[in-house]
Fold this sequence. Notes:
alpha/beta, TIM Barrel, 8-stranded parallel barrel, 43% helix
Amino acid sequence: MSTRTPLIAGNWKLHNTVAESRALAGAIAAHVRDGSGCDVVLGPVATSLTAVKQALDGSAVGLSAQNTHWEDSGAWTGELSPALLLDAGCGYCFIGHSERRQFFGETDAGVRKKVAALLAHEIVPILCVGESLEQREAGQTLDVVLGQVEAATEGLDAGALAPLVVAYEPIWAIGTGRTAKAEDAQDVHGAIRGHLSELKGKSWADSVRLLYGGSVKPNNADELLSQPDVDGALVGGASLSADNFIPIIDAGVRRAES
């Protein structure tokens, strides 16, 4: 099995008040032990970042933002910068999520600038890539996914990109209850790793953690994480409940131990 450390990340999207976020983070942090061999990250709404950071203090759980801007400051009403995220205690940030691309007009070029800005502040980008149902049925999955990966890393060398995490989230599986078969997820993950190797070198590509996202639940986490190139999960709906998220974390721990 891989020497890559599994990573289980929870994307809370537009859910939870400050109080709810603090309580959920505390319940999850109480379960996660240091040295488990599996990294755990929580991504609350921006208004809860400080509260969740406080709830996680002293624990082994990391904090992620859900988005960033590429500039540190300036006339960018409504935006948050990597510098501000770092100040809030974030060690990670989701970038290029399909909902950002689909509903907010995010482009590959913008995602690439965000990746570079986060890396400059030593925040780990969790780069989201994935195809729509129409693209999948047209046989375009790898063209779309590998194209998104290539665009987001263009002009950045392997040294700068060392912390990068890539999350493959087929759009047709996000929030729908539909999940890619474990073997299908592995096929795409294997193709991503192979493409990264061609782009930036095998040594770096072999170290990059690739997560699967899209209706990950306690009853399918072990099967997904049993695949050689699936190094963890980016979890949406199931991360909003400690009772659902903790078993997925436990699946990550089992992968680390296997």
